[in-house]
Amino acid sequence: MPTLTLPQTLIEQLSSQFGQRFSQGESNCLQHGRDESVHEPMLPSAVVFAENIEEIALTVTLCAAHGVPVIPYGVGSSVEGHVLAPKGGISLDLSGMNQIVAIHAEDGDATVQAGVTRKQLNDALKGTGLFFPIDPGADATLGGMAATRASGTNAVRYGTMRDNVMATTTVLADGRIMKTGGRARKSSAGYDLTRLLVGSEGTLGIMAELTVKLYPIPEAISAAVCTFPDIDSAVQTVIQTIQLGVPVARIELLDALSLKAINIFSKTTLAEAPTLFFEFHGSPASVAEQAETVQTIADDLGGTHFEWAARPEDRSRLWQARHDAYFACLQLKPGCRCFPTDVCVPISRLAECIAATYEDIAQVSIPIALFGHVGDGNFHLVVLVDTANEKEMAEAAWISQRVVERAIAMEGTCTGEHGIGLGKRKYLPLEHGNVAVDVMRAIKTALDPHHLLNPGKVLP
Amino acid sequence: MPTLTLPQTLIEQLSSQFGQRFSQGESNCLQHGRDESVHEPMLPSAVVFAENIEEIALTVTLCAAHGVPVIPYGVGSSVEGHVLAPKGGISLDLSGMNQIVAIHAEDGDATVQAGVTRKQLNDALKGTGLFFPIDPGADATLGGMAATRASGTNAVRYGTMRDNVMATTTVLADGRIMKTGGRARKSSAGYDLTRLLVGSEGTLGIMAELTVKLYPIPEAISAAVCTFPDIDSAVQTVIQTIQLGVPVARIELLDALSLKAINIFSKTTLAEAPTLFFEFHGSPASVAEQAETVQTIADDLGGTHFEWAARPEDRSRLWQARHDAYFACLQLKPGCRCFPTDVCVPISRLAECIAATYEDIAQVSIPIALFGHVGDGNFHLVVLVDTANEKEMAEAAWISQRVVERAIAMEGTCTGEHGIGLGKRKYLPLEHGNVAVDVMRAIKTALDPHHLLNPGKVLP
């Protein structure tokens, strides 16, 4: 049951404006009140399917007049409860806002509506020689990715959404439409509102359109897989690669359990041992040079089976397997959910952080896989739990807290790319201190005084 | 004369706390009330020379209690009036905060006090194999560079201060000390307060310490100079280089008048014609490959005298000449000041923007040189004026407005790297729209309700 009954006037207004695209139906509310994580569903009172900016502004304006919350929704692939409706209200589904507004190939940027997914954008770029590199595992919407400051496997080379959103068109809490940023590659003109919105999880405004950076498809790409005798030698290979400044495009660590899950799920025959996946981008000579450097490092650290995947179809299969790792792990324990962790630490602390995490893993009974974007110092635990089992949930909460507190003690962060949502709010003061959290709250209040945009998220 | 007489109590408090480091002396006030531009000096009421964060916090707290403005000051190399005191108050000189707090070579970051200059940081990095790439012409403080979101010649490859400040320790308007960001390479934990501070020009808080990214010194570096028959062919060379995705580290355009000024000032014998300066970073093979690609593009467009400077001393001389271009141009007209312009446009509009700018230049009598970081679409006019000559000042204002309005019409920005300060405030609504400016003002009011931090800057 939603926690809020909508005022009858609002129901009539939204029905009259949106017709079939306004729904109080149980299945729609259920679908929009849960995400991909262990968070218990929290249902919105109704769903509006918006198709343009004016409809977002209208919905926000009408809801504001009635003091009703609005929660933006993309495809629901969040894992920290961002799309849940703890106070009820309207789930504003933007998946119908899926128009590519403009591709400026000569400038290397594209403007898209917030509901465009990353794969849709890359499909639209075919023939331009450009691509959009940010790739969280799911085929998330670009609006959702911007809202959570998402990244993924390519971030070590191409940055995160923070670095790649140039401009937005955003609906404010009072329904006004704001433009932020611009298409110049740099600017010193005023406060960086674009960066303030990126990562604000729909709590400061609803991004309706985004302009994002594109990159030339590298002349040459090659991928490699290398197996290690233990996690530490794999991690040391990562650290040395980064410290040498090799411009590797992707460098991903997967542990033995992740590989086992991938082999079952993707019908691959990869060695079930600590493994690094690499990808190199550049000219043919540069790619060869990078790969040679990394292979030398890996060899010195006991890496074996350095296997190449230069053919596009082999690379695709490899990276699809990597992207499926999350779902593959879920299949290890039918009916389970994932209690996600997502810490990121300075690279010099990565080996120590992962080693201590394995000591924690040894203390619990639940299966836990580890993988991550280790070139950035970012890794995830896939903690597999039966949400109805109190002991498992307690173990998961314990290990999550241990990992987060350790990462913060190492000058890292409680979330590298998932966001705060509902799940990490308690760690925000621990990571940033009370003064910074006070300032975040002051900004929230200045922009959304009645706390109607995605209430209950980010701020503790 | 300052516009504000300090309350006697505040004078006594600051005198007692700072002794000789609190000064109401005319020469100190004069030095701190002007910058490198045409802006008329506006003197602070007094100067405080702070040496640590607690002293910044104390000064801000005492001034807040009396409603007295505080204007942070680095080395005064700003060109948009950032350090001027239109309402009097305390100029808070941070140049004594010049400690390098920590260098984490293994993580590629360093924490410095705000008064450390970029050259000082690079000197301190000797022997680590790392460098800090951001290089506005002046040897500015890192605090000042962060405040104005500065960049310079390397930005096309390494980004601007926006991309390279990872964390700050900032004193708020009420004297509280806030930590923002962290040392993890990425984070999705809460609002991006670091990015909000970078480019806020001391109006939201006073950055006292910064953590910045460092980069491995490239294995190979080479520089080149190439002369073109006209500006357009030089600009087309830039555009093609960028569109091909060549990871050039620097690509700078200088026009014939800039070269003439450089030859006089730096005693060089460069051809006095439209010229590109290049620098390539990477492995020896990659540098050779990049240079070859660019030379082919330049050759096709009529570039001549493609000259190499692979020896470090030759490269240094070349880039010193480039960095001295601003001061060299000033010498063309003894006693003059520079009316700066600093627009940045999407690269596809750069040729058109520069061509139209030359048509404007042809309309005025004052000497105007053009150079810039054209790989980003950013260029400057050095408009040489006698500030006492009304006709010259009117011509300068006219051309500045023409260039800014054109850049904004081309989806560019009124300032690529100098900042808004006093000089560009009127263009902020034109560039970002009234709603965004309202939101900036709401944030300013939330963080500094009495508008005591660098009042009169950024917001119109």
Give a short summary of the structure.
Chains A, B: It comes from Candidatus Dechloromonas phosphorivorans. Two copies of one chain form a homodimer. Chain A contains 16 helices and 19 strands.
Describe this structure in words.
The structure is a homodimer of 460-residue chains. Chain A is of the alpha+beta class and 460 residues long. Among the domains of chain A are: 8-93, Uridine Diphospho-n-acetylenolpyruvylglucosamine Reductase, domain 2; 100-216, Uridine Diphospho-n-acetylenolpyruvylglucosamine Reductase, domain 3 (2-Layer Sandwich), CATH 3.30.465; 220-327, Alpha-Beta Plaits (2-Layer Sandwich). In chain A, 37% of the residues lie in helices and 20% in strands. Chain A contains 16 helices and 19 strands. Chain A has helices spanning 8-18, 26-32, 53-66, 118-124, 142-147, 155-158, 161-164, 193-197, 231-243, 256-266, 284-300, 312-323, 325-330, 350-361, 390-409, 428-447, and strands at 22-23, 46-49, 70-73, 90-93, 100-104, 109-113, 130-131, 165-171, 177-181, 206-213, 215-216, 220-227, 250-254, 275-282, 304-309, 337-340, 343-344, 368-372, 378-385. In chain A, strands 12, 13, 14, 15, 16, 17, 18 and 19 form an 8-stranded antiparallel beta sheet that branches. In chain A, a hairpin with a 4-residue loop joins strand 5 (100-104) and strand 6 (109-113). In chain A, helix 9 crosses helix 11 and helix 9 packs antiparallel against helix 14 (350-361). The first copy, chain A, is globular and about 70 Å long. Chain A starts with 7 loop residues before the first helix and ends in a 13-residue tail after the last helix. The model of chain A has no long low-confidence stretch (mean pLDDT 95). At the A-B interface, strand 9, helix 8, strand 11, helix 9 and helix 11 of A face strand 9, helix 8, strand 11, helix 9 and helix 11 of B. Chains A, B: Keywords: FAD, Flavoprotein, Oxidoreductase, Transit peptide. Chains A, B: InterPro entries: FAD-bd_oxidored_4_C, FAD-bd_PCMH, FAD-bd_PCMH-like_sf, FAD-bd_PCMH_sub2, FAD-linked_Oxase-like_C, Oxid_FAD_bind_N, Vanillyl_alc_oxidase_C-sub2. Chains A, B: This is D-lactate dehydrogenase (cytochrome). Chains A, B: Its cofactor is FAD. Chains A, B: Its EC number is 1.1.2.4.
